[in-house]
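Hey,

Quick one before I head out. I ran the complex with calcium ion overnight. Inputs first:
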Amino acid sequence: MTSEPRVLVVEDDPTIGDVLVGALSEQGYDVVSAPDGGTALAAADRQPVDLALLDLGLPDLDGNEVCRRLRDRCPEAIVIILTARAEEMDVVVGLEAGAADYLTKPVRLAELLARVRAHLRRGGIVGVTRRIEIGDLRIDTGSRRVRVAGHEIDLRAREFDLLERLAREPGVAVSRDRLMADVWDEHWFGSTKTLDVHVAAVRRRLAGRPGAQVPTITTLRGHGYRLDPPGPAGDHG
Ligand code: CA
C-alpha cells in the first residue's frame, strides 16, 4: 500500500478551513486540520506531514513561529503560507522561516490545488494521480491530460478544472455557486456568465470526436450543471 501525501491545514477561520479540507480530501490527500498553532504542532508531533498550508494570523502563535517550529519537527515538510496581509514583510519573514511558497487570500481553490500538486511533485513526494474514466472520456488529474477515444483534446486551464470538477461526481447536480467556488474563487460576487461560457467551450471540445461515447453536460435551470455518463437515451426507466 502506498500512503497518500499527508497535508496539514492550519487555519482558524472555519469557513476557509472547511473549504480547504474538503477540496484537499477530494483530491485524495490524507488531510489533518488544526485551528491554531499549538494544535498544528501537536499534530505534526504525532505524525510527520508532507505539506502544510499555514495561515499567518493565528489566535495563539504567530504563523511564522509555527512555520519555524514545524520545520524543526519535520524538516522535509513543505510549508505554503496563506496570508490575508499583503504586506511584503510578512512574506519575507515567512520565507526566511522556511516556507516554500505563499498565497494571498482570498485564495483561488484551483490555483491552490495546482501549487500543492506542484510542490509535492517537486519535493519528490508522489502526488495523487487520479484517472477518471467515463465512457470514452479519460481525465488524468496528474498530467492534466484529457483524451476522448484515445485522442488528446486541448483544454484551457479553467476548462480542465471545470470538467474535472463535474466528472468527479458523474450524475450528481452541482450548483452554480459550488462550481464558481471550486473552479474560480471561493469569494465570488460577480456575474456567473463566465461559467456558462466555459461550459459551452467544454461541450464543444468534448463533441469534437463524432461517434465517441462522451458524457453530456446537462443544464439544470435555476441550479447548475450535471455531467451525465453516455448511454442510450431513455434507459433510466
Ligand atoms: Ca486567521
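The pocket of calcium ion is lined by residues 12-13, 55, 57-58 (CB under 6 Å).

Talk tomorrow,
K.
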